[in-house]
ClC family H(+)/Cl(-) exchange transporter (Caldicellulosiruptor changbaiensis), 523 residues
Amino acid sequence: MSNNDAKSILHNYWSLSHFKIIVESTVIGFVTGILIVLFRLAIEKVLQFSLCLYSFLHIHPWLIPIWSVFLILFGLIIGFMVQKEPMIAGSGIPQVKGILIRRLEMSWWKVIIGKFFGAVVGILGGLSLGREGPSVQIGAAVGQGFGKLMKRSKLDERLFITCGASAGLAAAFNAPFAGLMFALEEIHKNFSPLIMVYALVASIVADFVSANFFGLRPVFRFKDLISLPLDKYFVLIILGIITGIFGVLFNKVLLATQKAYQKLIFIPANLRPIIAFLIAGLVGYSLPDVLGGGHDLISKVVTRNYSIRMLIILLMVKFLFTMISYGSSTPGGIFLPLLSIGALTGAIYGKSLTILSIIDKQYITNLIIFAMAGYFSAIVKAPVTGIILIVEMTGSFSHLLSVSIVCLVAYIISDILNSRPIYEQLLERILSRNVGVYKKQQDSKIVLESFVCVGSQIENKKIKEIKWTENTLVVAIRRGGREIIPRGNTEIWAGDCLVLLVNENKVAEVKKWLENMIEGCKM
């Protein structure tokens, strides 16, 4: 790597002002917001149509065969779309993670079109899939498209992808801070202050666009929430244990369902989605409450006085239907389905406690909310995002302590049971199938950033004293608000952000080195 190469790349890296990138993040947030608003309106309309249709079929059962033909047609459409563009299958969040770590690539405009219409068809058929995964991937595709159209560097492109992903989740749930935290905690895996600012700008703009269509109100409007007394906090620990165990079960069954679909070798892959759509027809006719992502189901669990027996039936059907729906590779997420399963779990737990006279029934809604957050934390392994997401979605900021306890316990339980984040496992399955594999360029140079932990092996050492990996150059150190040009005698401090210039085909090797030397703190 010559000095001229380094200077050229660094010039491109530092040339853009922060203000310019903020403006560009605003554009990405605005475009993403518009697309997600249209997406939300579309899936709300088609789900409403689907529910009305099943009510109509109860009165006119002779139309069931005709609707079954349409369900088969929907399955064929999804199979064809996924076959043509595999990157639109499933949630989309694992794909975005894969792109950011340079293991996958996608055609941004194909993903926007395919994910949008594929998810709408899935909801029209009644599948138990959420809007958040497609929203995140559509936003990421908008960011990638912006970078490509503006002919920006790969580094800038990945920054824009993070901004778009953050904006997508923010617009999907009217939750800008949850969108920001999810993008940093789960997708980008980097808490760089600059990235945080740019992603926050995109999230706020997207949320502003969404609020102009859906109003300044949380996604779930729970009234008359009363804080749980401190002497009842022991029930939160038990709830955290329950949601932690159920979250591990959710991950295992979800992955097992995908394997089961792949074992149906006597059915061509592009025909397998038909199975999920036909099952959706049976479920919709017998128990329509579990159709779709689960937004209406969560509201009904809070407002209706379901018996424990009915709640258990809803829980079992929603759980299994979600597995079947997601395993079919139909575009759609698992956020809303898992939140609805968590809400049902919390309702069953709360009603059981009231029967035993442990708590008053006025606290059941609290437990429903807490269970949603705990379930999310156990499955996604992103507790901070789970806490912020539930707080923003419910509009209740007086239960942070309660929600945090449940999320922490659920996270610890899932960790004890050796459960890994669901999106990491899903990404590994995608990579094992060699779908959308990223084509690395041998001579391409990229910039990596990494923070030095307290107690790491290179803390308080001079740059010349460290044995760096081959083809790696330390080009800058960010310390507080300063940017330091490194020399051989420059000492590295804990908290420094190292900016490294590396060959693109050596990224995996360098990242592994970073984990051991920079991020691997001594305990």
The first strand starts at residue 445 and ends at 451.
